[in-house]
Each structure stands twice: as structure tokens, then as C-alpha cells.
Amino acid sequence: MTATVEPVAVPDAASPSLDAVWEDRPGIPGFLTTVDHKRIAVRYLVTATAFLFIGGLEAMVLRAQLAGPNGTVVDADTYNRIMTMHGTTMIFLFNTPVFAGFGNYLVPLLIGAREMAFPRVNAFSYWVYLGSGSLLYSSFLLHAVPDGGWFAYTPLTSSAYSPDVGLDLWAMGIVFLGISTTAGGINFIVTIFRMRAPGMTLSRLPLFCWAILTMSFMIVFALPAITLAGVLLELDRTFGMQFFSPAGGGDPLLYQHLFWIWGHPEVYILFIPATGIISMVVATFSGRRVVAYHLVVAALVATGFISFGLWMHHMFATGVPFLVASFFSAASLVVAIPSGVQIFAWLATMLTGRVRLEVPMLFAIGFVVTFVIGGMTGVMVGVVPFDQQVTDSYFVVAHFHYVLIGGTVFPAFAGLHYWFPKAIGRMPSRRLGVWSFWFTFVGTQLTFFPQHILGLEGMPRRVWTYPEGLGWDGPNALSTAGSVVLGVGLLLSVVAFALAWRRGEPADADPWGGETLEWAIPSPPPPYNFAGVPIVRSDAPMWDDDPPRAITHLDGEDLTVPHDGHHRAVLTSPLDAAGLEAVSMPEPSYTPLVVAGSLTLLCVAVIASSWPIGLVAVVVASAALIRWHDGIGS
After folding, report:
1. Measured between alpha carbons, how far is 477 from 619 in angstroms, rounded to an integer?
2. What is the pLDDT of residues 57-91, one digit of tens each?
3. Does pLDDT of 606 surpass 90?
4. CA 63, CA 478: separation in Å to the nearest integer?
5. pLDDT at 631
6. Pair (126, 258) in one structural domain
7. Are 165 and 83 members of one domain?
8. pLDDT score of 12
């Protein structure tokens, strides 16, 4: 390998010839065939945000019903169905995909790469995600909305108790979504190990990339459990196999084990990339590197490992032996330690730096406050005697939402405000952003803190109404009012982004003074990201005394011009990011869309028991996969 080193590409060093090769076709063909990680990421973020607001509207209906005693907004059956779709939407269609969007956009930019390792797999993952969401929400058109809760516990979700097609759509939608998430996780792992810029050893990897890497390994090991649970549930419902029926030799608790073996790591699958965003924001707006970088990395990895040993604390009330419960209780307390390490590292970074209270930093601070409250109540429910008192009460609802809104919504909006100028090239309104933060923060506390009190006063979760005279009226009214404030806060951010998209102030390459490589290129980035391959000498290359430099020639090939009309990228060795090799990347193609559409059709065929449709879907998917493998097919 021979290389020529020159200054890294800067905003005035764009390459029109690279643009011509890397740009997508115009119009609908380009939209349908793109494999550009940035365009796919924006789709993830827009789609996930749309699902956030759909889930939020569903939550508003639930809160309107519970605002006072003897509510009549919806009946019990409608309440159960809306509650099921609210939870499913937030957990499956917003929380995980929104961080997939951030990862898709940022990982190649942060590691100095031109593209993800498997561009067509990346496009396929998005189309499958969109297909699974469409499958789940088609239940409204079919008047068969699932009603078994977002966890779909058996035996209530068996065909005997839920005979309509709603739970079939739920089960197949979740299985389908697992394919998307697993494919995306594998793509992130390979990208981070094989496409880092030379010099970016693992000890120099940005913390957000460490978070995405940890999340991806967790996905690979956790997703099979929920996928298996969905498959077995559908086999029970469609073919009467009775995996979860005691009458047929099954066990309903088996479903709970499978669900929570995925479900508790899932909380940290969401939390870990969120902390990666917070680390990036805190470093930039404190003006210094994150304190104890290596301890923060160790905390991320430790959290990932420990999270697989916690699932039983969701089942303390199922009659498990106390000795078994005690081990899971201990693990539930221990997992707070690595989370605490990160929080203290951020606080130390802020205390030893010069904090600028820009909008992303406000959301980051809001995350810390909200998540700490959720973390403390999480330690409480990890203690067996306390958990048995509050299980299935509104105390658990409050804890769960503090963790998930603190752990996903605040970091997601911190990241959106932070990287919006990079992605769009325009600055969102600071005034609207500040108002958005305060409405969101105050609304979160007003909505969910009173629910702790409701739980301690005995209000069960999943109830659709309650009588007068129980002392629940005031906290419920306050919680409902808070949900309106929270909704306004999130909507203000969307308004700020929409206005900035059309007429925001232009953003330069590095409007915040960031530390990582994405700030070395224009805003928005060119289709190829980097004209040359950046060389990294520290974990904060933009803050080094000397400007970043780049490799522009490799083995006689000029990387700044097209090579035989192909998309070209550079691979490096997994551990030390050395041993450069130029490779051709897949071109835009219809095949990811065709394969994802065929699999969606196959799910419909299984639910409808239509084997001719299923056969057509298999044939089309097989033909598309053959073309994909042969590298044909744009």
C-alpha cells in the first residue's frame, strides 16, 4: 500500500466529478433506489418522528380518558386497543429506529468513511422497517387493532381470547421488524470495524460510535428472543401448536421469559446510543474532551453485558423462588454503577469546561435530570419486596416513562438540534428550541411524576376508568395537563426544524466548534462525504493543533476522482485501522425495495393463510436476491 497525504477536504474542496458518480438519479427512481446512508438516515428519522407523534396522539386519548373519574372518551375495548398501539409504536417504531437513523447518518462521517459497509442492506433495513410499521397500522383499516398490550402476554393473546386478525398483524409485524433491526446491527458492526479512517484505533473511536457498536452487538444477541416469541405466538394462533397453553403441555410463562430476555436488554439498546449522543453534545458545549474517556467506554460495554442478566425482575410477581429472584435483584442494582460512571463523567466534563447553554446542551441536561429520577425508581423496583408492592401499578408506568422519555426523547432531540445544521445546512431557531426544551422538560415532570403517587396510592396500570373518592382525581388531572404541555414542547421543535429547512440561516461546516470528523466537511455533506481519506491522530481530530490531513492517492489510484465510474471506498484493518485497501461499493438498486416488499407480502400471506400469494412473494424475493447477489439490478 502506497499513499499520498494532503490536507483533508474542506468546504471549498468539493469534487464535481465525484458528485457526478455518487449522486442519486433525480426524482422517484433516485428516491426508490438510493443506497446513500445519509438519505436513508433522514428517512429513518422522519419516519420515526412521525410514529412518535402518532404514538403521542394515542397517548393523549388515553390521558383524556383518565383525566377524571368515570371517563367516557372511549370504551374499555377501544382503550385497550389504543394502549396496545401506543406502546408498540413507541417501543418498536420510534425508540430503536430513531437511533438507527442517527447511526446511519453519523457513523460513516465520524469514522471518516464514504458509506456504510453494506449499502443495499442499509436500504433493505429501512424498507423492512417501513413495511412492518405499515403492517401494524393496517389493523386500523381492517378494524382489527390488536388489544393484548405492547407485550402481548399469553394466554390473553391466544386465538381463544383474541380471535380477530389484530394480534396476527402484531406478531408478524414484530418478527418482520426484527429482521430489519438485526440486519442494521450487523451492518454497523462491520462498518465500524472495517471502515475507520487510518489512525482511528479503538481507543480513538468517538463515544457515539462506541455506543452504536455496543448497541449493535446487543441487538444481534437479544433480537432472536423476541423474534422467536413472535413466531411461536403466531404458530399457536394459526396452527394451534400450544407452545404457551398448559392444556397442550406448554407454559404461558415461557412467553414472558422470551419477551423479557429481549425486553430488558432492549431498554439499554435504547439507552446506550442515547448516551453516545449526550457524550458528543456535552463535549462540544463544554469545550473539552469527555472526562475519563476509557471509563465511559468500559461503562458502555459493561452496561451491555449486565443488561442480559436483568430480565427476571419483570417477573418477580410470577412466583419465582426467592433465591433466584435475589440474583436478578442484585444485577438490577449493579447495572446502576456503569450508568452512574457516565453521569459523573458528564458532570465532571461540564464542571471542568466552559459550558454554553445552546439548545442541544439544554436537552442533554434535561436528559441527565430526567434519567436520574428514572434510574433511582428503577433501583427501587429492583428490590424484590418493594417490587411486589408496586408491580402492575402506576408507579411502574411512571418509572418506565421517566427512563424511556429521559433516555430516548431528550437525547434524540438533543441530537436533532445538534446535527440538523450538518445534515440540512441551515440553523434552526434558537428561540423556538429553548421554548421547546422548557415545555418538554416541564411537561415530562408534570405528566409522569404524579403517576408515582398514583401507584403508591394503589392505582393499577392498564385500567381504563376509575370511580370517584379514591384520591386519584388530582394526580390524574395534573398528569393529563402535563401531557398537553409535553406535546406542545415536542411540536415546537418540529416547527423549528420545518422553518429552518425552508428559510433558516445558512450553517457553515462547523457551526458549534465540534471535535469530530463530521465537522471537517461541508454542511450538508457531499454524497461521497470525504474526497480523501482523513488521517486521525487523536480522539478529537478537529481540536488538534494541526489541521486534519487526508490520504488522496492509494496504490496509484487518485481517490479524489472517480475510478471507472464506480463508488469507491477504503477498508482498513479491524483493530488498528491500518492496511488500507480501496474497494468498489454497490450501486443504487431497486432490489432492496423489491425484497422488502416481497417479505411484507409474505407476512400478509401467512396471516391470510393464502398460499398462492405466499408462493408469489417467495418467488419474487428469490429472484431479487439472486440479482442482488450477482450485483445486477438497478
Report:
1. 55
2. 999 999 999 999 999 999 999 999 999 999 999 99
3. no
4. 10
5. 59
6. yes
7. yes
8. 46
What's the one-letter identity of residue 162?
A: S
Q: What is the extent of the structural domain holding 429? A: 18-314+322-459+473-506
Give DSSP secondary structure letters for 270-315.
HHHHHHHHHHHHHHHHHTSPPTTHHHHHHHHHHHHHHGGG-GGGG-
Does some domain include residue 10?
Answer: yes
Query: Do 267 and 355 belong to one domain?
Result: yes
**Does residue 330 form part of some domain?**
yes
Is residue 516, in this structure, part of any structural domain at all? no
The count of domains in the chain is 3
C-alpha to C-alpha distance for 294 and 290, rounded to whole angstroms: 10
262-305 tens-digit pLDDT: 998 999 999 999 999 999 999 999 999 999 999 999 999 999 99
Q: What are the tens digits of pLDDT across the range 438-464?
A: 999 999 999 999 999 999 999 999 999
Task: Clarify whether residues 78 and 201 are in a common domain.
Answer: yes
Q: What is the mean pLDDT of the chain?
A: 91
- H or E segment at 533? strand 533-535
d(CA 171, CA 232): 9
User: CA distances (Å), 336 to each of 374, 378, 382, in order?
Assistant: 11, 9, 11
CA atoms of 350 and 63, how far apart (whole Å): 37
What's the residue count for the chain? 634
Q: Evaluate whether 244 touches 254 at the Cβ level (below 8 Å).
A: yes
Give Dmax (Cα) for the chain.
Answer: 82
Q: H-type helices in 67-206, by residue range?
A: 76-88, 96-110, 119-141, 166-194
Q: Does residue 190 sit in the same domain as residue 253?
A: yes
**CA-to-CA separations, 280 to 95, 116, 366, 393, 545, in angstroms, rounded:** 19, 21, 15, 36, 20
Could you tell me if 178 and 227 are in contact, meaning their C-beta atoms sit under 8 angstroms apart? yes
**Whether the model pTM is above 0.90:** yes
Residues 537 and 598 in one domain: no
* 575 assigned to some structural domain: yes
541 shares a domain with 416: no
**CATH code of residue 398:** 1.20.210.10
Let me know whether 488 and 571 are in one domain. no
Averaged pLDDT for residues 605-632: 85
pLDDT at 1 over 70: no
How confident is the model over 46-67, as a mean pLDDT? 95
